[in-house]
Design goal:
Elements lengths: L2 H12 L4 H8 L4 H11 L5 H21 L1 H14 L11 H11 L1 H13 L18 H17 L1 H6 L15 H14 L7 H14 L3 E6 L2 E6 H15 L1
Antiparallel strand pairs: 1-2
Length: 243
């Protein structure tokens, strides 16, 4: 089967609703062939195709590590490069895909999670200012979703690098998706000694009371519509339980 035919087959499969069925249908493809086709999916305009491609990318790259770890690293570096201004690309779907890959393979999380965190941090003249802050709202949406996903599967990796300190500023974002996903990630990570808990709780309380904007949230194969207020309320509850 040629490259074009494989791409068409993969994109058609990704249109289905059942993620398990999609994985089964694509299981016969070689990992490299599948991954190359998935790169067209993770930036697709159809949200079902895009999110299913992101999910499948995680397991596909994890399987690739069993054959060739360096090839898997190249995939991660390709995604990182797509987020670089010099690449000429846009990087749609890259943060989310990287998070799924890291959830599926701890070794790659060990090596690359610090790079994903760096996209929440500014660059500057000070030694600690070694970030690669993403300014585009769409990329911020993907990055904040990635932080929430990693908080579910690699929480200790994030906390070890104090990623929770980078999340609160996003609560003031004008974009509802960025704001809501930041609240979700904060709740999933919980309270820590490095978090300004009083300030964060005050901001979350305001969102929980007043922000009725809704966003569509993708979680492991399914979509649901949720209000920013609900996500903020859940985060508040999580912070209070930890304390």
């Amino acid at each position: 089967m040629g490259t074009r035919a494989i791409k068409q087959k993969v994109l058609k499969a990704l249109q289905q609703d059942d993620l398990v069925r999609i994985e089964t249908e694509l299981a016969h493809l070689q990992e490299k062939e599948l991954i190359n086709a998935l790169f067209s999916g993770i930036c697709h305009s159809d949200e079902r195709i895009r999110w299913h491609a992101i999910s499948i990318m995680g397991s596909a790259v994890a399987r690739l590590t069993e054959q060739d770890m360096e090839e898997a690293r190249i995939i991660l570096r390709r995604m990182l490069w797509s987020l670089n201004d010099e690449s000429g690309g846009i990087g749609w779907g890259a943060p989310e895909s990287m998070a799924e890959i890291m959830c599926c393979h701890e070794g790659l999380a060990d090596e690359y999670i610090h790079m994903l965190i760096s996209y929440m941090r500014p660059d500057g003249e000070e030694e600690w200012q070694d970030g690669n802050f993403l300014e585009h709202e769409i990329l911020q949406q993907g990055l904040l979703w990635a932080m929430g996903r990693l908080a579910q599967c690699r929480k200790e990796h994030l906390l070890a690098r104090q990623a929770e300190r980078d999340l609160p500023p996003y609560l003031d974002a004008e974009d509802a998706v960025v704001c809501g996903l930041a609240a979700r990630a904060i709740g999933l990570l919980g309270a820590t000694d490095t978090l300004d808990i009083v300030t964060v709780q005050e901001r979350l309380q305001g969102l929980a009371k007043n922000d009725q904007r809704t966003i569509k949230l993708y979680e492991q194969g399914t979509f649901r519509v949720v209000a920013v207020a609900e996500l903020a309320g859940q985060a508040l509850k999580a912070l209070q339980e930890v304390r």
